[in-house]
Amino acid sequence: MAALAYARRHRRPLAALAAWSAVEALHTFATGYALARALDAGFLAGAPRTGLAWLAVAALAVVVGAFGTARTYRGIAALVEPLRDTLVRRVVTRALYDGDGGAVSRLTHQVEIARDTFAGLLMVTRSFVFTAAGALAGLFLLAPVLLAVVVPPLLLGLALFVATLRPLARRQEAYLAADEALAKELGLLVAGLRDVAAAGAEQVVREGAGARIEQGRRTADALARWSLARAGALAVAGRLPVVPLLAAAPWLLGHGVSPGALVGALTYLTQSLLPALQGLVHGLGTSGSRFLVVLRRLAAAPPEPGYGRRPVPPSPSAPALELRGVTFGYGAHADPVLREVDLTLPAGGRLVVVGPSGAGKSTLTGLLAGLLQPWSGEVRVAGVPAGSAGAPARRVLIPQEAYVFSGTLGANFGYLREDAVPQAEVTAAVRAIGAQALVRRLGGLDAPVVPGELSAGERQLVALVRAYLSPAPVALLDEATCHLDPAAEERVERAFAARPGGSVVVVAHRAGSARRAEKVLVMDGPGTVSGTHEELLARSALYRDLMGAGEGSHPPGAAGDADGVDAVAGPGLAGDGGHVVAHGSVRQVQAAGDLADGGALGGQ
Ligand SMILES: Nc1ncnc2c1ncn2[C@@H]1O[C@H](COP(=O)(O)OP(=O)(O)OP(=O)(O)O)[C@@H](O)[C@H]1O
């Protein structure tokens, strides 16, 4: 269908190609016929001049045919180049919109394969059709009975070859898939080489890439074996048809076929039909299967939602982060860590997350950061789905273990920026985070950093300045200040809260973070409950425990927890614009110890 549509769109170049192919086919027709006439009417009849005249006709046909052949290349180019342009446009569009990692392989390798093989296919198919037409017409004119001897073995050869097409195409597809996977893996590796070296992950990376290379080798071997089988089929199809003609020669001569016609038939067979058949078999076998496979990979990969359209841009006024009915767990058979959680963090909002160890706080930040994908429900970033273009650059996650690499302090600070960060901006960030003493001690921004020679707290300061300078408006601090003293921690949290245009989620390490917060999310297993510090003291026994208030200070009128199940923040809280709102199912409340400000939360 697609081929027909393509042919319809390119009717004119196709017609021109057919016309020049017909001129080319004149040569085929004339070669056998003129040879037969040269023998029968010329040399065998004692009229060598007539024979020579017919040979001259054959020679003239060669010249005319060569002219036709030369012209067919223009027609081929007029059909092939538009296909290449279409494929390149498609691949580049997908790479730009979807961050398609296999695009390099597609663009540099597969599009060229598609173009070359399409040209090859057009050439051999066209040549076979017109050569066969010329030769069969010639045979018919010489003696129709010749067709009965020549055509059946030709068809048998074709059938043999067709049988190898499908298995070969499958091997070709596997080979290209392996090539793409390798290109993707190497693309990722090159981008992350510094991180690989910093994390000492060379061995892991070697094993992963080694497995891909091995897979590529295996698929190439399988392809080579089937190519060998096809070469066998080609040998049979390309030689066999001569035998019946030679074997039937006495019978044919006895039934009115002249010697010249016999020689003409042999000429048609050996000079035209068999080479054209070999060309077709070889061309379809290599170019045909490669073309179909490559085209399927280039054209049939499912377009992503919104493919070909501009992605919806993130909206700065939409909530910075939203969870809608998010359920998530680790492993197919594990209990969910979060169940049906709704959460809204308005643009510029601040959320502090508290909960006992294992309650799912890091899991929540992983979901918000896009490191984890929910089982169900949706994560939206600035109004767009978390997986779509534009969303990744809007969040920066600072985990407990800060990542610092060997290089200058300035390079570490500016790591998440694509531009050169102005000095004044760096100085302001260093001051906001409270890292001036560290910068001084190391000798300024150009001083080299040896990660192992920094304390855990100093490494956190480096990571925090880097996050502060990042273009992402949303900062996710997952106990990112746990190695700092309470005063330094407070300074960092205030800095992120005041970051222009910024929103922040803090997984609290100490109770003080929650006391200072506008809104707090209390997590306990799959359950969440949110509110202000005062609301939660009244509503949540777990929160009172975490804050060190204890059961004795249970304020009058607080939401009941007699059955061990805390209140779920319901519609009353949802939608109170400007505040963080959350609700979800809540599990058994667990006491987390009596913690005062400065003490650790969550079992640290
Ligand atoms: N990679 C993982 N594979 C399987 N289970 C995990 C994984 N990470 C966390 N969990 C489980 O998910 C639950 C929530 O863990 P999570 O780290 O989110 O809790 P947390 O509140 O951040 O804990 P902590 O305060 O100790 O850091 C725990 O039961 C934990 O064992």
Automatic annotation (TrEMBL):
<dbReference type="InterPro" id="IPR003439">
    <property type="entry name" value="ABC_transporter-like_ATP-bd"/>
</dbReference>
<feature type="domain" description="ABC transmembrane type-1">
    <location>
        <begin position="28"/>
        <end position="278"/>
    </location>
</feature>
<keyword id="KW-0812">Transmembrane</keyword>
<keyword id="KW-1133">Transmembrane helix</keyword>
<dbReference type="InterPro" id="IPR003593">
    <property type="entry name" value="AAA+_ATPase"/>
</dbReference>
<feature type="domain" description="ABC transporter">
    <location>
        <begin position="321"/>
        <end position="549"/>
    </location>
</feature>
<protein>
    <submittedName>
        <fullName>ABC transporter ATP-binding protein</fullName>
    </submittedName>
</protein>
<dbReference type="InterPro" id="IPR011527">
    <property type="entry name" value="ABC1_TM_dom"/>
</dbReference>
<keyword id="KW-0067">ATP-binding</keyword>
<dbReference type="Pfam" id="PF00005">
    <property type="entry name" value="ABC_tran"/>
</dbReference>
<keyword id="KW-0547">Nucleotide-binding</keyword>
<dbReference type="InterPro" id="IPR039421">
    <property type="entry name" value="Type_1_exporter"/>
</dbReference>
<feature type="transmembrane region" description="Helical">
    <location>
        <begin position="52"/>
        <end position="70"/>
    </location>
</feature>
<dbReference type="InterPro" id="IPR017871">
    <property type="entry name" value="ABC_transporter-like_CS"/>
</dbReference>
<dbReference type="GO" id="GO:0005524">
    <property type="term" value="F:ATP binding"/>
</dbReference>
<dbReference type="InterPro" id="IPR027417">
    <property type="entry name" value="P-loop_NTPase"/>
</dbReference>
<dbReference type="InterPro" id="IPR036640">
    <property type="entry name" value="ABC1_TM_sf"/>
</dbReference>
<keyword id="KW-0472">Membrane</keyword>
